[in-house]
Give the backbone structure.
Amino acid sequence: MARKHHYRRRQKEAPELDMTTFMNLMVVLVPFLLITAVFSRITIVELDLPSAKGPAPTEPAFRVEVVVREAGLEIMDGTQVIAAIPKADDAYDLSKLSEYLVAIKQEYPQIDDASVLLEPHIEYDHLIQVMDTMRSVEVEMDDGGDTNRAELYTAISIGDAP
């Protein structure tokens, strides 16, 4: 008789799940995730890649080319090196690059396209830093303190260094 009583205990109904705590968590978590998702954005850099079918070759025009090498940066006019900027403290001197590019832009204001040429094994971060430097420059306003961004070369293409 004791055995029959033992089986009756095991046949109890399962307790109900209390979902209140879980629902409270979801009420707080879902708005938080929606709010933080608004602030994340993806930046897209547009590049001009050379095509297989190009126009017929014409007279070589002035073209700004920045060659990123292990030893430093070189600024070329399409045929020869205009300036060489060595690395300073094992980092590229982007401020000096910006100064050279501003001087070139003042001499050739109509040119908006430029190229970045990379040696093999140059880090991607260095490419982006050089492209950002080539794209725009901060210019101080006449009344002091205030700075404004001015565009330099907006159409940037990339390639392998010669």
User: Anything to note?
Assistant: The chain has a mean pLDDT of 81. Residues 64-160 form one domain.
